[in-house]
Specification:
By secondary structure, the protein is an alpha/beta fold. It folds into two domains: 121 residues, Response regulator (Rossmann fold, 3-Layer(aba) Sandwich); 94 residues, Arc Repressor Mutant, subunit A (Orthogonal Bundle). It contains eight helices and 13 strands. The strands form four sheets. Strands 2-1-3-6-7 form a five-stranded parallel sheet, with helices on both faces. It has a four-stranded antiparallel sheet with strand order 8-9-10-11, with helices on one face. The protein starts with a strand and ends in a 6-residue tail after the last strand.
Length: 235
C-alpha cells in the first residue's frame, strides 16, 4: 500500500531533491503544496498518511502550520529544514511534530524516519495491526524489515553492515528496477566517480553470500546495465 505524503514546501533545493527521489518510488504518492493556506485546504479535503513540511513559508512559519493542522487533524508531521537551531527544533516538537530533520540529509534516512513515524502512529491504534506488516517485504524464505533495519533468512537474522543494508534497501524497495553501478554509488556513498564502482560489485557479492543468493535469484544482474531485485515479491 502506498503512503500518501503531503509535501508542504516553498521552492527550495531540498524540495526538488525530495520530489526527484520520491517520484520513482512506488511506495509513495507525493502531493505538493507551496504555502500554509494550500496545505490546510489539502488536509481538509483529502486523506494523507504524513506531512513533510518546511519551517518557512510566504504566509507564516512551520510552527503556524502545525498549530493549525492540530485543529484539523492529528496528522503525523516531519519538519525538513536547513535551520539547525536547537530551540527551533524543540519548539517544533513541542507543537506536536513527530520528527525534525536538517538539510542536507541522506534520502534513505528520511524514508526510514517516515516509516518509523508511521509505525509509531499505527502502534497506538489497536484497530490497525497491519502497520508492522507494511514495513516488511517477503520473498520466499527471505524477509526484509525496512524500519527495523533487519534481514532474516529462514527465520534467522542476517548480519549486514550499514552500507550493505542501504544497498539492499534500494534494490528491495524497488523490485524490477535496474540500477547502474554509478547510480548505486551515488545513492550509498554520495559519489558517482569510478573509484566506487568496484566497491558496488564487492558489496553485491557479499550480500549474495550473506543472504544465500548463490544462484542470483534475489539480486539479479542485467548485463551491461546494472543490478535489480527479483520481481516476485509479496508485500
Amino acid at each position: 500500500m502506498k503512503l500518501r505524503v503531503l509535501l508542504a514546501f516553498p521552492n527550495s533545493e531540498y524540495k526538488r531533491e525530495i520530489i526527484y527521489n520520491f517520484s520513482d518510488d512506488l511506495n509513495y504518492e507525493i502531493v505538493v503544496c507551496e504555502n500554509i493556506e494550500e496545505t490546510l485546504k489539502k488536509v481538509e479535503d483529502e486523506k494523507f498518511d504524513i506531512v513533510l513540511a518546511d519551517m518557512e513559508f510566504s504566509d507564516g512559519t512551520g510552527l503556524d502550520l502545525k498549530k493549525q493542522l492540530n485543529n484539523i487533524e492529528d496528522i503525523p508531521t516531519i519538519f525538513v529544514s536547513s535551520i539547525k537551531d536547537d530551540i527551533q527544533k524543540v519548539l517544533a516538537l513541542e507543537y506536536g511534530a513527530d520528527d525534525y530533520i536538517v538539510y542536507p540529509f541522506n534520502i534513505l534516512e528520511l524514508k526510514a524516519r517516515i516509516r518509523a513515524v508511521i509505525r509509531r502512529v499505527n502502534a497506538n491504534k489497536p484497530e490497525n495491526n497491519e502497520g508492522e506488516k507494511e514495513n516488511i517485504i517477503v520473498f520466499d524464505n527471505f524477509e526484509f524489515n525496512i524500519v527495523g533495519r533487519k534481514v532474516r533468512l529462514d527465520g534467522e537474522d542476517i548480519d549486514l553492515t550499514g552500507k550493505e543494508f542501504d544497498l539492499l534497501y534500494i534494490l528491495v524497495s524497488n523490485p524490477g528496477i535496474v540500477y547502474s553501478r554509478k547510480e548505486l554509488a551515488k545513492e550509498i556513498w554520495d559519489e558517482s566517480y569510478e573509484g566506487h564502482l568496484r566497491t558496488v560489485d564487492v558489496h553485491i557479492k557479499r550480500l549474495r553470500e550473506k543472504i544465500n543468493d548463490k544462484d542470483s535469484s534475489l539480486i539479479k544482474t542485467k548485463w551491461g546495465e546494472g543490478y535489480y531485485f527479483g520481481n516476485s515479491i509479496d508485500k
